[in-house]
Amino acid sequence: MDAQLTCHTCGHTTTPLVRQNGPHLEAVCPECKAHLRFLPQPLTELKIYWGKYTGRRIGEVQDAGWLSWCYDNIRTLNSRYRQALKEQIERLRYQTA
Ligand SMILES: [Zn+2]
């Protein structure tokens, strides 16, 4: 994450600060703290915001049954989360095979 961004609020062009904002990574201006943009993050870095694993990264959860249940039953998850769950489920499946 070393791309430089220009802040539209204060005009500085710098390497942005990156912070977690809910389920998103957000780049902010180090000078004035203005929002610059949201950043893509690796799918397995996505943080779970529901249920017993709240706050854990999807890549940390070893509970394939729970992941599968979420994948099948939680209809409000966006496509990135669904893809992340699927990837982690498949990873666990191959580990135990
Ligand atoms: Zn700024």
List key phrases describing it:
3-stranded antiparallel β-sheet, single chain, 5 strands, binds zinc ion, alpha+beta, 2 domains
Low-confidence stretches: none
Bound molecules: zinc ion
User: How many extended strands?
Assistant: 5
Run of helices and strands: EEEEEHH
Which structural class do you get from the secondary structure elements? alpha+beta
Termini distance? Answer: 36 Å
In what range is the share of β-strand residues?
15-25%
How helix-rich are the residues, as a percent range? 25-40%
Q: How does the overall form come out from the CA principal axes?
A: elongated
Q: Helical stretch count?
A: 2
Report what the structure shows.
This protein is α+β, with helices and mostly antiparallel strands and 97 residues long. The chain folds into two domains: 5-39, no CATH class; 43-96, no CATH class. It is 29% helix and 20% strand. It contains two helices and five strands; from the N terminus they run βββββαα. The strands form two sheets. It has a three-stranded antiparallel beta sheet with strand order 3-4-5, with no helix packed on it. A hairpin with a 6-residue loop joins strand 4 (24-28) and strand 5. The protein is elongated. Zinc ion binds next to loops.
